[in-house]
Specification:
Layout (H helix, E strand, L loop, with lengths): L9 E3 L6 E4 L4 E4 L1 E3 L14 E7 L4 E7 L4 E6 L6 E10 L4 E13 L1
Parallel strand pairs: 2-9
Antiparallel strand pairs: 1-4, 3-7, 5-8, 6-7, 8-9
Length: 110
């Protein structure tokens, strides 16, 4: 099977009940793509574009660290105790195929 975003059925970031963010710190996370059968899609055929949306929008910011490795940095903006969600959208530029994953629960810790 070719490693394309259109074959992805789920993502795993990270394998815990929520994504913990800590006030004043950035965390680097890795997106892992899986087929419906649970097999990791690796390596990817083409680099993917990643975009991020938070609810509420002020909760945190995320920036791509390495699109080929699907790494991104996430940093809270809201104070400790704030929570919300993160949705990740992946786009394969070669085919314009887009998939969104989430929402993932996010909690800001002190």
């Amino acid at each position: 099977m070719s490693a394309k975003v259109e074959h992805a059925r789920s993502v795993s970031i990270p394998n815990i009940s929520h994504i913990p963010l800590f006030t004043g710190y950035s965390d680097r996370l890795k997106v892992r793509l899986y087929t419906a059968g649970g097999r990791e899609i690796n390596p990817l055929q083409h680099p993917l574009d990643m975009s991020f949306s938070f609810a509420p929008a002020t909760l945190a910011t995320a920036t791509v660290a390495d699109s080929a490795l699907l790494l991104f940095d996430i940093r809270p903006n809201d104070p400790a105790g704030s929570d919300g969600s993160l949705t990740i959208t992946l786009t394969e530029p070669a085919t314009a195929t887009t998939k969104s994953f989430g929402p993932f629960y996010v909690l800001v810790h002190p």
